Amino acid sequence: MSEETPIKAVQVKLVLLGEAAVGKSSLVLRFCQGDFNENTSPTIGAAFLTQKCRLENRIVKFEIWDTAGQERFHSLAPMYYRNAQAAVVVYDITKAASLEKAKAWVKELQRQANANIVIALVGNKVDLVSDSTTKPTEPTKVKTEENEEETEDNEVDAEEGEEEETTPSPAEENTSDDIRQVPTAEAEAYAKESGLLFFEASAKTGHNVGEIFTEIAKTIPFDTISPKPTTTSSGNNRRSTNNNENNNVNLGDNQQAKKGGCC
Amino acid sequence: MSNQELESDHYDVIVIGTGLAESIAASSLAKAGKTVLHLDPNEYYGGEQASLTLDELIYWSNQYTSSTPSSSKSNTKYHGSSITPLSKELAQDKRRYSISLFPSILPSRGYLIDTLIKSDVSKYVSFRVLDQIALYSQTDNHVEENFKRVPGSKEEIFKDKSISLMDKRKLMKFLLFATGEFENDDILKGKESQPLNQFLQESFSIPSSLSNSIIYAISHCSTADEPTLEALKRTRRYLKSIGRYGNSAFLIGQYGGAGEVAQGFCRACAVFGGTYVLGANAKPTNIEITPQGVSLDIPCHPRRITASHLIASPNHLTPTLLTDSPLSSGQAEDFVMAHGIAITKTIPDILRRKMSNPEEISSNEEEVENDDTAIVLFPRNDQDVVKCYINGEGTGSCPTGQYIIYLSTCVPSSSWESAPSDILKPYLEKITSEPIFEGYYYSSRPSSDSTLSSISDSIVKLKPYGGKELLTEGLDWEAQQGEEAFYAVMGRSECVKGFFEKDISEEEEMGIGEDD
Fold it and tell me: Which InterPro entries does the protein's record reference (chain A) (predicted)?
């Protein structure tokens, strides 16, 4: 991810949404740092993280905004959605209610965010279930290196975690079915009808995490945010994004610049 | 989710209201390790500094239609509000507007800019340089010629063909004086409280054709007779702001300005662990002083919440929590301002034309865009200047091809009998003949020496800006209030970390992930 860059990276603001404790921060930490921390505190302590995603013909630099807990009492500020080109809406496959919450966030995005925002619906914590039949697209590579208890927010105990193996036995499948509350098909159908990308992933094992971001990077309509803007545009967001890039002042630079333009 | 309760019954600090000062205080305290609960009974962020969508503005305006202000002594009051109904087009696009209740521009040097940089909030709140400042003077000529662009920098003064060489020399002499240590200068001795217009004429022989430009467009005075020393101090700061980020002394916050900046600080606070509750769930009741600090109830939590400190502006505090300040003279009057907000698709061409500057054009590959932010000043005889602030599409606060126009002027309190539109509409008409939306209201703010203080050190009361120069001074006032609230909670001592002071390790970490 850190090779030299022959082409200029396109910056994309990506916002995370979803109920508290579904693993939003963990997904980002996995993507940005390749890490999984069992005891991630509810906030991650940075305004946003950045990570590059290399495609065949371009490099996308994600600027990833976490909710910092401001979603809990429905107090997410409009600035959070402002100019976001992508959103990852996360639910926990072991909690049916979290999918309902995710649907509410998708609605909120459609109300508040750019019209052409790319939204990915992500069912997190597939490491807690092992039935490969429900997720045919993924290779069965779910390894459980850590057997400790999951983070405070899920009710699985260590023994059940231990039993998640590459090839599940029928008995274990039963256990999995008990834990899984959101069938893949149900969430996938909802995503399809709402025009969302869809993934089931595990921040803990890293399964499918990179794929989420790669797929988003591929899906974003880049003509609308390319550095050379088309001057005639109907959407105001698109236009103001361009203006941002061209006229914004970088306050932190403390430059004695004669002109206002940044860079 | 709405029935969720808070994680704790106790916080180090509770902040009520998400105005700019409150938000700066909240984030600086969270950054310093305090546990912060930040409440706002409004559904939107920003309090008095909020930037609203059109539907939110209508809701806001409907609260203040009464023709007289409330009698409350210490907070900002609004009254006389009226707005035109929304057309179909506006109703459809209502969420694409970000209209400021605190229209203001930011000097490139001062409290807020320092705070933005120190706190790193500058990384996610964006600003642009103010394009132009123009002075209006009625002539019999073509309407476009009534607007005269005031040169913003030395270079522009040299290039300005409308000023004679001799006048340029006088002007430069004054600007040099105003940038320097004039407090000890013999020129000023004994004339500190002389009206500025008289001082300019007598001490610098500035002709009246030029003095209005200095008084209104460089010093940003409300009246020509403002005491000289006071005006000079402000002027020096503005002059020193020129060139830091551009040819203008001022920056404009994108997406509605102050409200967006407040949101930025709230986000910073949340990132440092602050808890946010907005709306009806956050309305505090039964605020009481306790031996350990304060306690209060909010609807979203089943038990009483305690805190060592409470920070709030006076409108969130009941009168029993406030007492007459010993400094209060008791007779200072409120500053009353008439405000106008209009949306239009047309403004005079001269306000959109780029100042010809060959050097800039050649070095800039981008197409030359029109100016779309401006300050226009309308001096009035024996009355305060009418200040007009124009935000175009480039500020992200309105749809393409439109402008938001803010008008304001200070008025004597006797003018309450007339509607604010009577005062301001004639000036709006000089800028556009076909506004697609208009709204007007009065605000009254206590002058700074008439404010109340709180009855306990546990309650830190923020003061609303109490001067006439809201447009250019309001944001820095808020930042200063936020910083004072921080020290009121933390105390000033060597062993306590300062306002947004960074750890050494943090300084080292800087740059990680910021690989531009």
Answer: P-loop_NTPase, Small_GTP-bd, Small_GTPase
